[in-house]
Design a protein that fits this description.
The chain contains three helices and seven strands. With 137 residues, it is α/β, with parallel strands linked by helices. It has a single domain, classed as Chitinase A, domain 3 (Roll). The strands form two sheets. It has a five-stranded mixed sheet with strand order 5-4-3-7-6. A two-stranded parallel sheet has the order 1-2. A hairpin with a 5-residue loop joins strand 3 and strand 4. The relative contact order is 0.22.
């Protein structure tokens, strides 16, 4: 029996920006499209000012642990155009869409190459634009 997905909270501004990108022909057929659309569809969407500080939003820097290996990572969740460079992951990548909207302490499974599944748990939101008062980053 598959475990229920954890509840997620998204900023209405992040949702608007992601949905605009999904309308772009360049992103019409990327492999993770269905997953990001599912995440948006099940989310509690709130105004950016209402996002709790421990929630992963766009442009957040987050520490998480891969539960199977125990390896810890720190990444910045970004839009595809900003995904170049070390320490950044696109929201359209499987792990990126898995991180979006999770809160500290929550876990989620996400698809890995070769049909495998990984499981990650949020350890800390190191930086979140909304908590810093930066609603337009």
């Amino acid at each position: 029996m598959e475990k229920a997905l954890p509840p997620i909270t998204l900023s209405s501004l992040d949702v608007e920006r992601i949905e605009r990108l999904l309308e772009d022909p360049a992103f019409r057929d990327f492999p993770g499209r269905e997953q990001i659309e599912t995440e948006i569809g099940r989310a509690n969407v709130v105004d950016p000012q209402e996002i709790p500080a421990g929630v992963v939003t766009m442009n957040s820097r987050v520490r998480f642990v891969e539960e199977d290996s125990g390896r810890e990572y720190e990444l910045e969740l970004v839009y595809p155009r900003d995904a170049r460079g070390e320490g950044k992951v696109s929201v359209f990548a499987p792990v990126g869409s898995a991180l979006l909207g999770l809160a500290v302490g929550q876990s989620i499974a996400w698809p890995l190459p070769g049909g495998r599944t990984g499981k990650l748990r949020i350890v800390e939101v190191v930086y979140q634009p909304e908590a810093a008062g930066d609603y337009f980053r």
